[in-house]
Amino acid sequence: MKDYFIGNKEYFPGIGKIAYEGAGTDNPLAFRFYDPDKKIGNKTMREHLRFSIAYWHSFCAGGNDPFGADTHHFPWAVKADPMEAAKDKVDAAFEFITKIDAPFYCFHDRDLAPEGKSIAESEKNLMELAGMAKERQEATGVKLLWGTANLFNHPRFMNGAATNPNFDVIPFAAAQVKAAIDATILLGGGGYVFWGGREGYMSLLNTDMKREKEHLLRFLTAARDYGRKAGFKGTFMIEPKPMEPTKHQYDYDAETVAAFIKTNGLEKDFAINIENNHATLAGHTFWHDLQVAADNGLLGSVDANQGDYQNGWDTDQFPSNVYETARAMMVILENGGFTYGGLNFDAKRRRNSTDPADLFYAHIGGMDAFALGLEIAYNINTKSELPKRKSTRYASFDSGKGAEFEAGKLSLEELRNIALDAREPETISGNQELLENILNRYMFVR
User: Where in the chain are the domains?
Assistant: First the structure.
């Protein structure tokens, strides 16, 4: 990647390109653990982690919440003309992305360009800004990880987009998705994500779930068919979330999405984009949903954030829990690593973090947390006894009658007959506390 980008104006003056200075540095604007060129196995940290900056939280989210107005005021958002402000935002974004030294970014259509007064004007706005972003990509080497459409903010989508009970809404959603796919193709994105922010219900009193889910399938297959016809060669992804803003969303968790994809024969074109905070809202761990996606051959990409276990909503905090990042990277490495996906920081500064430098501190901390997690995970997977202990626990299925059972060669009657002549099964310890001790040994001894 080339040096950092400055457009017509520097939006983060006094902050240069963030460099790796090592664990002993006192510089808050430096990486302590993320050394992009350090080899872990046969790939560098940059190649393993594939960090991406979320356009929406970093350059659009003003820090507002249900109880208060914006606290983050952006110098790139001051022009009265929305298109001119959007162009300034592109320059600010690429300045930040190149200064933080991230290789990728992600966007919603409405993050990049403002909605127009008509479908045609909205499409024109998006493609004009996408063209500008393409020029910045070519100038800097930054790439688009994936694109998506915002089908949840506008009042027309209050009852959903693809699952809206009013057909008149669906063509508007389709127009947005078509344009967002076009922009993703133009920018060379490796993926396209569907997050069903309002694809669910608030009350079953007025909801036909079966019909709405059938409509969702129709919409996704139509989007897939258009994308392939238009030349999109990447992977479509569905991002699970259990609720919020709806009471119940149809993409509840990784297991639900995997079942939807496989039941409907979409696995050649679709995968899953896992977000940590969404997994915890579903009552799972980040580790669990990643493992479910990987076990189904559907782990596409990751939205790297974390939630607050004392808050029952999607707080989208920057990742700092190294236990979580290590466990996540254990699964990702076991799965062969990323191809088209990566670690996208779908995270936002806290409402009271109002200094421009806070955006850098937040990303530096998240990148360092995953760099630590990567090294720990690699050592656990390749040097510790944990993988062997897990496989040994299932050794009785590797030969004999256990192997026959796994192969589907034993009927219920045959299993019963085996039990007739067998002794009571031995009580075999799971050694959970020992395994936790082994994990801690690798967590804290480097």
Answer: 19-383, 388-444
- Over residues 320-357, the pLDDT tens digits come to 999 999 999 999 999 999 999 999 999 999 999 999 99
- Which member of 111, 182, 251, 253 is catalytic? 111
The tens digit of pLDDT for each residue in 196-231 reads 889 999 999 999 999 999 999 999 999 999 999 999
Its pTM stands at: 0.97
111 is catalytic: yes
How many Å apart are CA 180 and CA 205, to the nearest integer?
34
Q: Which fold is adopted by the domain 19-383?
A: TIM Barrel (3.20.20)
Query: Is 421 annotated for ligand binding?
Result: no
289 in active site: no
Closest C-alpha among 426, 386, 387, 418 to residue 402: 418
